[in-house]
Amino acid sequence: MVNITHDPIFSVFRRFEGEIPVGFTVDFLGGIRRERLPLSIELPAGGGVVQATGVMPLPDEEYFEWIDLLESARAASGSFTMLELGAGWGRWGVAGVLAARQCGIDTIRIGLVEAEPIHVELMRVYLSDNQIPSDIVDIFEGVISEDPGEAYFLVRKSVTSKVESDGGYEWWGQSKLPADSQPVAVAKGAYANRDLLIFGNGRAAVVVPQFQASKLIRKYPLIDLIDMDLQGEEFVVIYGAMEALNDRAKRLHIGTHSPEIERDLRALLAANKWECLRDYGCLKTNATPYGEHYFQDGVQTWINPRLSSR
């Protein structure tokens, strides 16, 4: 048992206590997720429910993602809009819906950008399992960057690998390949019914749409939180959408992936008069209000004072 003093924002929200379906786990706000993947694995026969208490986050790099999400929901007024860029299975978007509901907000919209085909499948199931109405969700199946077009999106580290962690059910670090990458072979329909492009180093990718960041952000009049985990594309996205972000976004939670990107983000956002709430570097141990913790991905939180004081 780990005893910690949680950030005060957690006390504003009710920790989930109640029944959940057998074969699921539940998070702090009540988001339920299947314990076993892939989706071809059947849920326990007979169904049924069990009593459960939502799992409180531990103070690691994701802890600050929870803080940003909860603070954004509490600060929202009348409506809540959130974008999750690099959404995976949509965990944070669903948590945003649940947090906003606890704040008495009925007008909610979430936008989820994800390129990995298996992750999009998992996302749709997660949304359904949590009974999130489809009419409040926008799913963008592709990558986001400065310009529109198409991109090679890495889905296999090596086509010859037998390692179980090399695939969409176990791996969550996929990213774009350089635009000048040249495939040496194509396996028709070999990955989630998509053509798998194989490159000389054994890596393999699928072709996905690339959404222009500024245009996508301008689909929403006001965005309470943008949560991004873009595997090295974070500076490019923010640079390309800086004017739209200044006009529309209240808060950014950024997962960072190199010291150089972190440095460039600090310069860009400060020059645009954003205020930094948190800044923990990647690939190192950082001192936080909750002790020292190692951060694989870094964390930066920025507030737009034109639209929000917190």
What brief labels describe this structure?
310 residues, alpha/beta, Rossmann fold, 2 domains, 7-stranded mixed β-sheet, 7 helices, globular
Q: What does the secondary structure layout of this molecule look like, with pairings?
A:
Layout: E1 17-21, E2 24-26, E3 32-34, E4 49-53, H1 63-75, E5 79-85, H2 91-102, E6 107-114, H3 117-129, E7 137-141, E8 143-145, E9 149-156, E10 183-191, E11 194-199, E12 204-212, H4 213-217, E13 225-229, H5 234-240, H6 242-248, E14 251-256, H7 259-271, E15 275-280, E16 284-288, E17 291-295, E18 298-303
Parallel strand pairs: 5-6, 5-13, 6-7, 8-12, 13-14
Antiparallel strand pairs: 1-4, 2-3, 9-12, 10-11, 11-12, 14-18, 15-18, 16-17
Helix pairs in contact: 1-2, 5-7
How would you describe this structure to a colleague?
With 310 residues, this protein is an alpha/beta fold. 23% of the residues lie in helices and 34% in strands. The protein contains 7 helices and 18 strands. A 7-stranded mixed beta sheet has the order 7-6-5-13-14-18-15, with helices on both faces. Strands 8, 9, 10, 11 and 12 form a 5-stranded mixed beta sheet that branches. Strands 1-4 form a two-stranded antiparallel sheet. The chain starts with 16 loop residues before the first strand and ends in a 7-residue tail after the last strand. The model has no long low-confidence stretch (mean pLDDT 93).
